[in-house]
Specification:
The chain has 312 residues and is an alpha/beta fold. Helix content is 36%, strand content 14%. The chain binds phosphoric acid mono(formamide)ester. The site of phosphoric acid mono(formamide)ester has 10 residues, from helix 3.
Length: 312
């Protein structure tokens, strides 16, 4: 038996743990925070950010969200921790939990690294998944949903084209399932060898040239060089010419359609550089919304666990 039966609610692990109503609730709360809502903690809540893979956006926006919520941050740098001496992730968490950390925000290269941890009877620490290999990226998905919702006011009937390195993308994996469940129609484009037939259930694989003019959302993914065998890669110009969102392709988009990118961007590869500043491109908006979505997700976990005097 699990130490805590309601694992999905007590942690943030996968978008599949969120009902459609949960998603709307998180977006609503993130909008409240964006408009200045504040919370008061009755007692301290301690959080550590454990990033075993590099990050700019997710790490800095979780940290900003934690400051804005009044959480107390406990420094953790894998390179200067006992992980370098072979300590397991479980034992790292046991240590942080023992010294009083309540929430661990974790990015790790291993898919579903969290499964044994949330079942461990000796751990009572909330896990917030900040990306598990090519698995999922729930907080990125939530900020993407918030950004789409801000622009269109709904999801049903929207045509979303997800372009690029699909098979290695935790962003595509988190977004495809929830966007379909919320009523959007999906298509995928990009190299065949970076497509995964597991996505067939969400929409068809096509080409960017065939789909770009009809899409409401063109979600461009980063080419994840670090997850590729060099023999299966492209030169930047080959990739851009065949699969990238170039200026010429962007001109074909509907005027009200939007461009999204989770970042970091390989400028001039999957996305032409000047498109980042195009008013149709939501890149900066996505990053801004990331702070408020992460505030809402952290508050949700604190309420379920009754941390800081909060409750549901
Ligand atoms: N989108 C995203 O996860 O970016 P970082 O890798 O910089 O956190």
């Amino acid at each position: 038996m699990l130490a805590y039966p309601d694992v999905a609610k007590r942690n943030i692990l996968s978008m599949q743990d969120f009902s459609n109503d949960d998603v709307q609730e998180v977006i609503k709360r993130a909008e409240d925070f964006k408009h200045g809502a504040k919370i008061e903690l009755a007692e301290p809540v301690y959080v550590a950010n454990l990033f075993f893979e590099n990050s700019t956006r997710t790490h800095s926006s979780f940290e900003m969200a934690e400051h804005k919520l009044g959480l107390t941050l406990i420094d953790f740098d894998p390179q200067h921790s006992s992980v370098t001496k072979g300590e397991t992730l479980h034992d790292t968490l046991l240590t942080l939990n023992s010294v009083g950390v309540n929430i661990a925000v974790i990015r790790h290269s291993q898919e579903e690294y969290y499964t044994p941890l949330v079942k461990a009877p000796d751990l009572d620490i909330a896990i917030v998944n900040a990306g598990d290999g090519a698995g999922e990226h729930p907080s990125q998905s939530m900020l993407d949903l918030m950004t789409i919702h801000e622009h269109f006011g709904h999801f049903a009937g929207l045509k979303v084209l997800i372009c690029g390195d699909i098979s290695h993308s935790r962003v595509a994996r988190s977004n495809a399932e929830i966007l379909q469940r919320l009523g959007a129609t999906l298509e995928f484009a990009g190299p065949e060898q970076w497509y995964d037939s597991a996505f067939d259930r969400y929409g068809k694989h096509t080409t960017i040239d065939a789909a770009v003019a009809d899409a409401d959302v063109v979600m461009v993914l980063r080419v994840q060089h670090e997850r590729h065998d060099p023999s299966e890669s492209f030169t930047a110009s080959q990739y851009r010419a065949k699969y990238g969102l170039t200026d010429a392709r962007a001109i074909q988009m509907k005027r009200e359609a939007i461009i999204m990118h989770p970042g970091p961007i390989n400028r001039g590869v999957e996305l032409d550089s000047d498109l980042v500043a195009n008013p149709q491109c939501m890149f900066a908006q996505q990053m801004r919304n990331g702070v408020f979505v992460r505030m809402a997700l952290l508050e949700r976990v604190m309420k379920v666990r009754k941390l800081g005097g909060l409750h549901e």
